[in-house]
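Q: Entry one of two.
A:
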Amino acid sequence: MKTGFAEISKGHLKATNTIPKAAQGNIIDFAWQLKKNGLSDVTIRNYSKSLETLVKRGANLFEPESIEATITSQTWTNSTKALVIASYKKFAVLYNIRWTPPKCEVIRKLPFIPLEKDIDELIASCGKKLSTVLQLLKETGMRIGEALRLDWNDVDFEKRTIVLNNPEKHGNPRMFKISEKLIAMLNRLPKDNDNVFGGSSWRIMFNNFNAQRKRSAKKLGNPRL
């Protein structure tokens, strides 16, 4: 296993234990190359998961014809197909495989924009750590991966600022002015780890968020959540 890639590799080894070991190795090597190219962990996982799905559905990663046959035989939405196509396109480039991707038109829709009171209601209904993460994302617009990599040294409680030194997607380092409310929420978190959120996994955080969102929507009678 390659040094500096333990977290992603371990995550994918768990996810790929139902596919051949050779394919597991190819996908981990693929993920490692994407990491070296500066792609975010979330993007790497999405691409790798797409390749795992192709293999589980019977495709051979080194036979483009089987890839296309597998993709076209699925009842996936166009958005899912587009992600799988983009994932294999990256893989084909890495392994010098000649492949002409099938066309897949994704119909773009306007995103759902929640009301601020809905956001605040959801944040208030979550636990201590998750509510702090959500408040941070609301105030700064950080990506979840950026937020979960923050160290306590990045937080200036006196000046009420947070410095983002590890941006994703080739972004620039940034400094944010944050509210007294967020400062108070951060102060309630344990400080027994250099990392603000204790090295929490984005996947666990995401699953907790989805579960809490559904519980809150039901409890508060607010389907917008």
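Q: Entry two of two.
A:
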Amino acid sequence: MPQQTVKMSPQLYARICGVLYAYILVAGTFAALFVRSKLVVSRDAAATAANIMAGESLFRLGFSAELLHLACDVAVAMLLYALLRPVDRHIALLAMKLHGDGYAIRLVFFGFACSSLGHLIFRSGYLPRTIGALMAVAGACYLVSSFAHFLHPATGAALFNAGILLPCFVAGLSLTLWLLVKGVNVAQWDGRFRQDVAAR
């Protein structure tokens, strides 16, 4: 029965995933550019605390937005697994697990998750290969940014200021808009689904 529900609903799943992904992009951008950047002072906990006290409403709004962001992220992970498991169930499950772990160890695992999703999307046949490639590039950018931050903070900051995460935003926005506007090629998805079921 669960298989039949997933089989009959790829377009609906794609639309819901697109809406949630759109919120994640907006909330994440808001929290990074308009909350943390205004409140957090690098290497100065006292100044950060003072900023939070002075901007309590902004802090609460950003915190609430990110809490909902995390809840949406769980739903997006499940929906993407349902959409992409006909391509490769094992990689799809790995991508969703890494996606969840990404918040524990920042963007390193998130970068691997994006790369895994890019691989699945590129191979799917029912989502554009271009978006798959963009997601793979986004994963690489996350990884480079994260390792630079850990290994040499000054270089990490320079890369961030140079816009190394811009491709990540472009990839996320592209996937979001495609899921919202186009969804998936249902005939191609159905063929992949049948192949997956037959292979079990």
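A: Comment on entry two: The chain has ten helices and no strands. The radius of gyration is 18 Å.
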